[in-house]
Amino acid sequence: MEVDQVKQRQGLIALAFLAPALVCLAVLRIVPAISAVVESFYTESLLRGGRVFAGLGNYTDLLSNKDFRQSVGVTLLFTVLVNPIQVVVSFLLAVLFTQRAAGAKLWRTLVILPIATPPAVSAVIWSVIYRPDGLANGVLERLGLPAQPFLTSSSQVLPSLIVMLSWIGVGYWMLFLIAGIQEVPEEVREAALLDGAGPWRRMISVVLPLVRRPLAFVLVADTVSNLLVFAPVQILTKGGPNGNSNLLMYDVYTRAYAIGDIHVAQAEVVILVALTLAIVAGQFRLLRGDQ
């Protein structure tokens, strides 16, 4: 009995410590999520003077909307391009900066520095870099290449955003991979070295399999982060030109606050969450299959 009472008391103490976090989770996450799902089935009616039940009307309107379909296509293309770039570059930099080489700590610090800059500030910095008379075209001019339109070009706007977001995110994801690489037993590295494995072979056959868990976390977290990109698009491109940078999160903002159709925006949020869950579930399934 005394043991059960002690366990019960410990459980109550643990619950008391968790209570503030659970309340915040419910108020800031769960309740708004339920509200978004409920509101997505309603619409505002001027004739009836309030909201009325619309069923799946908001969803069918979205799916039949050409701009929404373009936004979904742009978001999927952006995700397919940016995620592999950021994960691969983060992994390669993590491997490089865990080597015992002169200046490795300094370069690691320089790569990490963009993390300390808020995304909105980073977007402003890159808006100056991408200006017609900015740093990017200045470098191209030095190399004897013609100036580029970058953010005002339908074909260049998405790659330009990918470069900027990779500059922001690579250092952050690299930290997780550095922690994973440092957990690789030194004797395993030494054994591979004694077997005559070169740097590339050691990275592929020794390091990569042993950091699969942090690599899987980085892939999934990076995917979710990139599907929710908003501030750089809002500051730099406003979804243009011609909708070629109109990512779903910015399209939600436009429908909710520019057009003022909050119920359709809520339906789009539900679709975005469902799309994110589907992509993440597919990644988990592929990663589990590799194991």
Automatic annotation (TrEMBL):
GO cellular component entries: plasma membrane
Matches recorded under Pfam families: BPD_transp_1
Main location: membrane
CDD domains from the UniProt entry: TM_PBP2 (cd06261)
Keywords assigned by UniProt, alphabetized: Cell membrane, Membrane, Transmembrane, Transmembrane helix, Transport
Entry membrane topology: Multi-pass membrane protein
Domain ABC transmembrane type-1, chain residue ranges per copy: 72-281
GO BP annotations listed: transmembrane transport
Subcellular location: Cell membrane
Membrane-traversing stretches: 12-38, 72-97, 109-129, 157-179, 215-236, 256-281
Entry keyword Transmembrane helix: yes
PROSITE patterns in alphabetical order: ABC_TM1
InterPro entries for the chain: MetI-like, MetI-like_sf, UgpAE/MalFG_permease
Assigned protein family: Belongs to the binding-protein-dependent transport system permease family.
Protein name, as recorded: Sugar ABC transporter permease
Originating species: Kribbella soli
Lineage: Bacteria, Bacillati, Actinomycetota, Actinomycetes, Propionibacteriales
